[in-house]
Write a structure and sequence with these properties.
By secondary structure, the protein is mainly α. The chain has a three-stranded antiparallel β-sheet. A hairpin with a 2-residue loop joins strand 2 and strand 3. The two termini are about 35 Å apart.
């Protein structure tokens, strides 16, 4: 019986192609190409800039460190990405008057406009990706992804030597 025929290749992988992390990575890279192409060719921003922009749209006024944590990027990359977004006039940094080291980040009007144009198209890619699943499968997958994320977080919490956050492959 090959690894692809095994009913439990998730717990007893026989090949790299059986490993869950590898399989999820392949989905991310394959479908993610469409997001990268959309961002870079049509809107002139990188996937990392899109990630920060989209998280910021949900967390207006966040600190750079908070954005880094939510986007799973290190602080240095987040800072460079914010600098790039500010140069493109997509975000505005506002230091707190009482502590100028604390800088809150907001979308500019142009940033909001760009987010409003890109997000529906990225959501459409997401819908197309899961279109091959019926409603019950989508509900089940959603619950399983949440359970896997919770387990991954527990695993990292139990291993304090594990660096966090990671870059997420960008």
């Amino acid at each position: 019986m090959s690894g692809h025929d095994s009913p439990d290749r998730l717990t007893a992988p026989r090949h790299q192609a059986d490993l869950l992390l590898y399989r999820l990575y392949r989905i991310h890279i394959t479908a993610g190409r469409m997001v990268v192409h959309l961002c870079e060719s049509e809107f002139g921003i990188t996937r990392r800039e899109w990630r920060i922009l989209s998280f910021l749209a949900e967390r207006e006024g966040a600190l750079s460190s908070q954005l880094a944590q939510h986007a799973m990027l290190d602080r240095a990359r987040t800072s460079r990405t914010l600098t790039s977004l500010a140069a493109k006039k997509l975000v505005v940094r506002q230091p707190r008057p009482s502590d100028r080291r604390e800088v809150h980040v907001y979308l500019s009007e142009e940033g909001r406009r760009l987010y409003g144009e890109i997000y529906p198209r990225v959501a459409a890619i997401n819908r197309e990706l899961v279109a091959g699943l019926d409603a019950a499968q989508r509900t089940q997958l959603d619950a399983m992804v949440d359970a896997l994320q919770a387990q991954a977080s527990r695993m990292v919490d139990q291993r304090p030597e594990t660096p966090w956050p990671v870059d997420g492959g960008d």
